[in-house]
From TrEMBL:
InterPro entries in UniProt: ABC-Purine-Binding, Peripla_BP_I, PnrA-like
Organism: Spongisporangium articulatum
Residues covered by the ABC transporter substrate-binding protein PnrA-like domain: 44-293
Gene3D superfamilies in the cross-refs: 3.40.50.2300
Record's protein name: BMP family ABC transporter substrate-binding protein
Highest taxon listed in the record's lineage: Bacteria
Span of the signal peptide: 1-21
């Protein structure tokens, strides 16, 4: 099994479609300045779309940046919160480059266009973007990365399926992008595995972090006798506290927010970006960061042992039986070839989307481009 260090070196290697060339050797690419992309800088920059104290996505990414600061004391770590997903992102990254950054982490899904623009203008700077997919020709100094977080989301679905009394689960999500859709599907599949009657009601907010919309979504779900609520939002505290106040169960996402729900917390899926960030930085410093003619995508998960996420702690109501089921499922998901998305799986329309004996593996276009809900999810995909 390749080590995390080797994976970081190879994720930028040439690959057809979305294949991960985990066994290929990375080679140095010399830029017009005479050094490989990412070398010779005095700083590394991180931009976040929201606040670093959001009990969610941005907090997890910020904590990862601070791990880089510990790992590389000779590098100044530059961070900027609340960077919009527009030309302002490019402006902030340009400013960091002006302050000596030769490695930039653009951590939001909507930062991709700005990241590509900055990478094209600065071939000596490594720019990596969190969570998206690059298609077509890309430069030698740009890549993307993410983890198969839908796997622990599946396990959290198991906890939800065992806890619900109404067989109704709620899911508050931001935008209908593949990441949110495959998370919703994985959550429902996990719940179905222990409770075939469980259904997941998906509500869209159209925002990564709008507390008022989140509160409205939670109130709507709870009014339908939903007794477990989870989410795919950047800032998570509003959904969690509103659910806790109503006496319902909650499942977290992005970061450990169990302190916000001492009674109703079940578990969650949270990012642990530090080791992956460290390896990407080291790869660039070593002059081994290379781009790809087709894709520069890097996906890691349970099957290769390099997953950048962990399961959140259990809450007080999770039974030993549920913990044992989740532990067994976790072991199964770590096996080579295992997948949350193993057929037969039907879509909402009743048609088979994944046939029996077939499965979608991490990095597969069927996951990276997922645009359908599984049977058991209630609600239409937002336009």
């Amino acid at each position: 099994m390749a080590s995390r260090r080797r994976l970081a070196a190879t994720f930028v290697a040439t690959a057809a479609a979305l294949a991960l060339a985990a066994c290929s050797s990375a080679t140095s690419t010399t830029s017009s300045t005479g050094s490989a992309p990412g070398q010779g800088g005095s700083a590394v920059g991180f931009i976040f779309v929201g606040p670093k104290t959001d009990f969610g996505y941005n907090q997890a990414a910020y904590e990862g940046s601070q791990e880089v600061a510990k790992k590389f004391p000779d590098l100044k770590v530059l961070t900027q919160e609340n960077v919009p997903e527009d030309d302002n992102a490019a402006r902030v990254m340009e400013g960091m480059i002006g302050r000596g950054a030769k490695i930039i982490f653009a951590t939001s899904y909507g930062h991709l266009q700005a990241a590509e623009k900055v990478a094209a203008a600065h071939p000596d700077v490594v720019v990596v973007q969190q969570g998206n997919v690059i298609t077509g020709t890309v430069g030698k100094n740009i890549g993307t990365y993410f983890g198969t977080v839908y796997e622990p989301v599946y396990l959290a679905g198991v906890a939800a399926g065992k806890a619900t009394k109404s067989n109704k689960l709620g899911y508050v999500y931001a935008f209908p992008i593949p990441q949110t859709i495959n998370n919703i599907n994985a959550f429902e599949l996990g719940a179905q595995s222990v409770n075939p009657k469980a259904k997941t009601y998906a509500v869209n907010t159209g925002s990564w972090c709008d507390p008022q919309k989140q509160k409205t979504a939670v109130d709507s779900l709870l009014s339908q006798k939903i007794d477990v609520v989870t989410q795919h939002q950047d800032c998570t505290s509003t959904v969690i506290t509103a659910t806790e106040a109503a006496g319902a169960y909650t499942v977290g996402y992005h970061a450990d927010a169990s302190s916000l729900a001492p009674k109703g917390w079940l578990t969650g899926s949270q990012w642990k970006w530090g080791p992956l960030y460290d390896d990407i930085v080291q790869t660039a410093i070593d002059g081994k960061f290379t781009g790809s003619k087709y894709n520069a995508n890097y996906r890691v998960g349970l099957q290769n042992g390099e997953n950048p996420f962990v399961q959140s702690p259990y809450g007080p109501s999770v039974t030993d039986e549920t913990k044992a089921i989740i532990a067994d499922d976790l072991t199964k998901l770590k096996a080579d070839g295992a997948s949350v998305f193993t057929g037969p799986i039907k879509g909402q329309d009743g048609k088979v989307k994944i046939k029996e004996g077939e499965s979608l593996q991490y990095g597969d276009p069927g996951i990276e481009g997922m645009d359908w809900f599984v049977d058991g999810v209630v609600g239409k995909i937002a336009k």
